[in-house]
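re: that chain from earlier
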Amino acid sequence: MKKQYLEAGKIVTTHGIKGEVKIMPYCDSAELLAEFDRLFIGKNHDEIIVERARVQKNMVIAKLEGINTPEEAEKLRNKMLFMHRDDLELDDDTYFIQDLIGMEVKDADSDVLYGKIADVMQTGANDVYVVRGEEREYLVPAIADVVISTDLDSNIMTIRPLDGLFD
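^ sequence. v structure.
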């Protein structure tokens, strides 16, 4: 089942005297996180309005509605921030990492089950899926030549390994 709320970042400290907070982004980029007008905070996912946000050294400095002093901002330190799945539109063939974790990986031609995705490494050029099988781990590049299909509803990714990938 897909999670409705996705981890977006963590409030790490206060900033300035007007109640701003500094957020360490957990998403692809600080710029992306700074675009949101609303986020959800804490385990109860209470909605919080972002009045303004800007990026500074790969961190987001944000003014949150109702937080006007450093003392109020300090109470939010170490709180997790979430985004609602519906607030973010993904391109085709783009997925949330947490939706991929645990997905079964099968061979497109032989139907052999290689294992399940245990992690996604973001290398810059392309992501690499860490597929944990019964006896070993495989590193599978997330490229069109390898990944044939990704079916989130069935929780199955079909791949066609490049020659030598699993040798």
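The chain has a mean pLDDT of 90.
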